[in-house]
Write a structure and sequence with these properties.
The structure is a homodimer. With about 230 residues, chain A is mainly alpha-helical. Chain A has one domain: HUPs (Rossmann fold, 3-Layer(aba) Sandwich), CATH 3.40.50.620. Helices cover about 40% and strands about 10% of the residues of chain A. Chain A has eight helices and four strands. Chain A has a two-stranded parallel ribbon. In chain A, helix 2 links the parallel strand 1 and strand 2. Chain A is globular, with a radius of gyration of 18 Å. Chain A starts with 6 loop residues before the first helix and ends with a helix. Chains A and B meet through helix 3, helix 4 and helix 5 of A and helix 3, helix 4 and helix 5 of B.
Chain lengths: ~230, ~230
């Protein structure tokens, strides 16, 4: 399964685990703006007790042309909520999910896995073409023609359990499954704290607000603070 | 275009150039058994005067499970000629063309290219699933759903000019187009000279023999040898 360390992939991982899958996580060091999500992905994989976790280096960053891989392009502020997803923003990374799923397909074939799990969502999302159901369906068709496992073996399914859920429903599902949402990182900027203004922060905040659940990743680490306050 | 430095991709490149395409070559350092083909790819790109040449690092080697990426697995001798392509051999690299085409798709989108060119051949070949027409067709369909260029722009075509040619016809085409076949490297083993016994060497030799053309990559560097023999 693809694990970015964000809200969606962490919830998708918790879902797949609850469904009884034995999970191998794959994360990508692709030249993204910050490595915070990779640290979080490792913590999430550990918290969920996944079987193994590959971190693969991929040369998307050197191609540039995205605000997420080229520091010369600023991360944009989110537009008004109802405008999100109507145009493909500058945070789009060319062919990113295609490249990620292709490498996950290679891992799956080597590991003997029969499914690729991805936290893609096509409802409360940024309009990236490679998060849409028609893309994922076409990828699955292609994958089963591409590999020895597809021709001679059981083949591979693409599972996208969040595809048609709202961000609210993703938060509720993650909460119900006790996914370690407090460990997740969504902010595109990668500062000390989530910026609250990029599209990823705004979509996440909307989800938690509509679910009526506080975002556990935003709470200050309570014990340390309290201990400090309670000190002499 | 995907350029491995072998006979097929070099002929496909010469074809695409003759068709008037402005070509960006992409080669992959994927943990293959030897780097000889990458050196040859660079020479071929230069000889053909291609616009640019990306060499991208891809972590397929660390997954192992192929004789081409895992030195613990021996490169097999080719079976009898008529048996070649009937079973997928141990030189199969899981999801290789899917990963290569996906990264080429990212390059294409960044460069504004409207086609991916691949030297895949499904006639005199090793039976790799990701060289077959149905795979390439499915990849093209997927690619046009995956990218901003597919949704908002001109989209991308997958061109595989050698797909239905025999190895003989590939040699004849390469010769006619004056492709730099003398620079190409096909042998899986990567020794000082082609081994002549691996499947790739056997298929290549069959092609040149049936075309009635000497393989320019096999000719000994004539001047040095003759000079040596002519010496006192």
């Amino acid at each position: 399964m693809l694990l970015s360390g964000g809200l969606d992939s962490t919830t998708a991982a918790a879902w797949a685990k609850a469904e009884g899958h034995d999970l191998v996580a794959v994360s990508f060091d692709y030249g993204q703006r910050h490595k915070k999500e990779l640290t979080r992905a490792k913590q999430v994989a550990k918290a969920l007790g996944l079987r193994s976790h590959h971190v693969l280096k991929v040369p998307l960053g050197q191609l540039g042309s995205s605000a997420l891989t080229d520091k010369a392009i600023a991360v944009p502020r989110a537009p008004r909520s109802e405008k999100i997803g109507q145009r493909i923003p500058s945070t789009y990374v060319p062919a990113r999910n295609t490249v990620f799923l292709s490498l996950a397909l290679a891992v799956a074939e080597v590991e003997g896995a029969t499914a690729l799990v991805i936290g893609a969502n096509a409802l409360d999302y940024s309009g990236y073409p490679d998060c849409r159901p028609e893309f994922l369906q076409a990828f699955e068709t292609m994958a089963n023609l591409a590999t020895k496992a597809g021709i001679e073996g059981q083949g591979v399914q693409v599972l996208a359990p969040l595809l048609r859920l709202s961000k609210r429903d993703i938060v509720l599902l993650g909460n119900r499954l006790q996914a370690p949402l407090g460990l997740t990182w969504s902010c595109y900027r990668g500062g000390a704290h989530p910026c609250g203004t990029c599209e990823s922060c705004v979509l996440r905040a909307k989800g938690f607000a509509e679910a009526g659940v506080p975002d556990p990743a935003l709470r200050p680490a309570p014990k340390t603070k309290r201990a400090a306050r309670a000190g002499p």
